[in-house]
């Protein structure tokens, strides 16, 4: 299965007083992975699209399983779970080696920057996302 992934190290700024990653930072890690995924498709400012469109988080479901700690080396994945005309849903995981620490289902919506109403994902981007989505399912 084709899954996008980035390496990430846990720094002191990511942790609470006990040296454990603060829960909201897992969402930040997932954001970085999605951003780098879109950069890999050629979108250098992925949240701001041509034509006055924005990509925004519509919803997030997060399950925390284990704690990451200071100096851990992590892998953060981004895999397309569903693709629609106006949104894309990513299944994401934060791993330490093969150990699953956190997983999430994040829906990203395309909206008009002025009205903030749903808008179709630009054709070229939708095509690239669709190709990636199908490359995932063909290899599974």
TrEMBL record:
Keywords of the record: Hydrolase
Domain of life: Bacteria
GO molecular function, one term: 4-hydroxybenzoyl-CoA thioesterase activity
A matching Pfam family: 4HBT_2
Gene3D superfamilies reported for this sequence: Hotdog Thioesterase
Family annotation (PANTHER family): 4-HYDROXYBENZOYL-COA THIOESTERASE FAMILY MEMBER (PTHR31793), ACYL-COA THIOESTER HYDROLASE YBGC (PTHR31793:SF37)
Protein name, as recorded: 4-hydroxybenzoyl-CoA thioesterase/acyl-CoA thioester hydrolase
Lineage of the species this protein comes from: Bacteria, Pseudomonadati, Pseudomonadota, Gammaproteobacteria, Cellvibrionales
């Amino acid at each position: 299965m084709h899954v996008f992934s980035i390496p990430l190290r846990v720094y002191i700024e990511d942790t609470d007083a006990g040296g454990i990653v603060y829960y909201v930072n897992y969402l930040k890690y997932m954001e970085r992975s999605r951003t780098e995924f879109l950069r890999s498709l050629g979108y250098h400012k992925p949240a701001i699209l041509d034509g006055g469109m924005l990509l925004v988080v519509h919803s997030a479901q997060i399950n925390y399983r284990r704690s990451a700690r200071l100096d851990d080396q992590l892998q953060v994945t981004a895999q397309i779970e569903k693709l629609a005309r106006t949104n894309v849903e990513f299944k994401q995981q934060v791993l330490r080696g093969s150990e699953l620490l956190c997983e999430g289902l994040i829906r990203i919506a395309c909206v008009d920057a002025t009205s903030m109403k749903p808008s179709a994902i630009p054709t070229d981007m939708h095509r690239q996302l669709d190709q990636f989505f199908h490359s995932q399912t063909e290899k599974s």
